[in-house]
Structures are given as structure tokens and as C-alpha cells.
Amino acid sequence: MTTPVTQIEKDLGERNRELLAEIARLGDIIKRRDNELFEAYDEMEVLKEQNAIYKDFPKTAEDMGFLTPYEVGRIFYQLGVTAERNKVILHV
Q1: Phi and psi of 67, rounded to 5°?
Q2: What CA–CA distance (Å, rounded) separates 50 from 7?
Q3: Per-residue pLDDT tens for 20-62?
Q4: How far apart are alpha carbons 47 and 56 in whole angstroms?
Q5: In which domain of life is the source organism classified (predicted)?
Q6: How far apart are the C-alpha atoms of 14 and 64, rounded to whole Å?
């Protein structure tokens, strides 16, 4: 038969093992999250490098040397005005 002190020691030992198992489980979770964080950081660094590469690329049609819709409309308007003055019919 166990004495009350022995039973308390057993209970504390069991609780200790449970707590250590919980600490180990939480440690695994922290390691996994830490690894995910490092992977995300690495991906962010790659994106930063890609952004630096593409930062100097033209961003608009005008920057790339294409006509903007406004400019195209202006050209057709001017052609229409010129055609009207000269009585020329435009076929678009």
C-alpha cells in the first residue's frame, strides 16, 4: 500500500511528464512556425530582388512608347476635322 506522500510523488511525477510532453509539443509548433517564417522571409527577399529588377521597367503604355487611348482618340478627331474640311470620308 502506498503512503500519501508516495502517492503525491507519483501524481507530481505524472503531472511533470504531462507538462514536459506539452512543452515538447509546443516546442515543435514553435520550430515549425519559425521555419515557416524563415521560408516566408526568403520568399520576400526573392520578391524584393525581382521587384528591384522590374522597378525600372515601363509601367504605362506611354512609358513603353505606345499611344494612349486619349492620343488615339485625338488623332482620329484631328483626322475627322481634317477630313471634314477637305470633304474626305474616313473609313475606319
Answers
A1: -80, 140
A2: 64
A3: 899 899 988 999 998 888 888 888 888 888 777 666 665 666 6
A4: 15
A5: Bacteria
A6: 72
Nearest to 45 by CA among 37, 31, 34: 37
Half-sphere exposure of 42 (CA within 13 A, CB side): 6
Whether the model clears a pTM of 0.85, i.e. scores above it, the answer is no
Q: Using CA atoms, how far apart are residues 20 and 28, in angstroms rounded to an integer?
A: 12
Q: What count of other Cβ atoms lies within 10 Å of the Cβ of residue 59?
A: 10
The grid coordinates of residue 23 equal 512543452
Question: Which set of grid coordinates corresponds to residue 74?
Answer: 485625338
pLDDT of residue 77: 78
Q: What does DSSP assign to residue 59?
A: -
| Alpha helices (runs of H) in 1-92, residue ranges in sequence order | 4-54, 69-86
